[in-house]
Amino acid sequence: ETGVTQTPRHLVMGMTNKKSLKCEQHLGHNAMYWYKQSAKKPLELMFVYSLEERVENNSVPSRFSPECPNSSHLFLHLHTLQPEDSALYLCASSQDVAGDTGELFFGEGSRLTVL
Amino acid sequence: AQSVTQLDSHVSVSEGTPVLLRCNYSSSYSPSLFWYVQHPNKGLQLLLKYTSAATLVKGINGFEAEFKKSETSFHLTKPSAHMSDAAEYFCVVSDGDNKLSFGAGTTVTVRA
Fold first, then answer.
1. Is B44 in Cβ contact with A99 (below 8 Å)?
2. Residues A83, A92: contact at Cβ < 8 Å?
3. What's the pLDDT tens digit per position in B29-61?
4. How far is B82 from chain A (nearest CA, A)?
């Protein structure tokens, strides 16, 4: 079993739909992250959770709603998205909130297309 | 504030020839620096990291990087490219405030 698992791998949704992305880590880490990856742009940090508490929220629109029910699971709830939200959404985990260690463990991503 | 600039958006090399990926950074403090690799349809994987120890850092798969403070650079090299090195590479900087800044990435293609 891989360290960080994301489902679904691909998602197509209309602008009025509600869907969720799921992330699960099997590494015993305390911190989890959502990143947005758009073509030829730097990764954008969206949310950071440490021990199930949100510690970072980088001015993300409210149509993205994270949930961290325990240290192994992280969700990203999506509603009334826009076409420009189409991207690869990456989940990552680290032992503690990354700083000097910088070592994040990434899932394979969920490719989201908004029609 | 910290930032990273990857000087090449795309690098193409022949198999068996050297690879050079260039990265410049800016940071208010003594930074930690990292290179990540992303193969097609995969997540990012840590290649190597510099955290104020030896300036020449060796990573996985034969890659290494040299930290040059005077040039604010952290270029990634490999003496001999392999087909499996075709991927996207990201330079990352952290100045210790628990925030990582990613570069825009360099796509490497390897010609047979």
1. no
2. no
3. 778 899 999 999 889 999 999 987 788 999 999
4. 23
